Amino acid sequence: MKRFTPLSLFGPSATLPRDGTKEWDAVLRCHRCSGRFTIRNLPLKRIALVPQVAACPHCTARSSAGVKKLHQIIDLRKAKD
Predict the structure, then answer these.
(1) Using one digit for the tens of pLDDT, what is the confidence trace for 12-51?
(2) Is the separation of the CB atoms in 74 and 29 below 8 Å?
(3) CA 22, CA 47: separation in Å to the nearest integer?
(4) DSSP letter string, 21-43
(5) Phi, psi (5° rounding) for residue 15?
(6) In the chain, what are the domain boundaries?
(7) For the chain, give me the number of helices (H) and strands (E)?
(8) Which of 1, 40, 71, 77 gives the lowest tally of CB atoms within 10 Å of its CB?
(9) What is the distance between the alpha carbons of residues 71 and 49, in angstroms, rounded to a whole number?
(10) Cα→Cα distances 62→8, 16, 21, 25, 27, Å
(11) Closest to 44 measured CA to CA, from 64, 73, 69, 70
């Protein structure tokens, strides 16, 4: 049985995966109405920004930095070609 070795999140071994240029689909949950919505074809480096800038298609709520209300990312998958 192979021994599990965790990867470091910091340091030289902490690199993006080779397929970091691929696009991703993010499923978010609205902070106001709890509705789910999908943002498609995001580059990996933009995923962290999506909850801050995306508007909910159900209730049009936007995130609020002052009140610290953000949409939550509940699922993340590689985009299908």
Answers:
(1) 555 555 555 589 999 999 999 999 999 999 998 899 899 9
(2) yes
(3) 12
(4) TSEEEEEEE-TTT--EEEEEEEE
(5) -120, 160
(6) 23-78
(7) 1, 3
(8) 1
(9) 11
(10) 34, 29, 27, 19, 15
(11) 73
Q: CA-CA distance, 51 to 59, in Å (whole number)?
A: 15
Q: What residue has token string 């990312």?
A: 73
Q: Give CA separation, 8 vs 11, 12, 20, in Å.
A: 7, 9, 17
Write down the residue that tokens 């397929």 correspond to: 19
Tokens read off for 70: 């953000």
**Average per-residue pLDDT for the chain:** 82
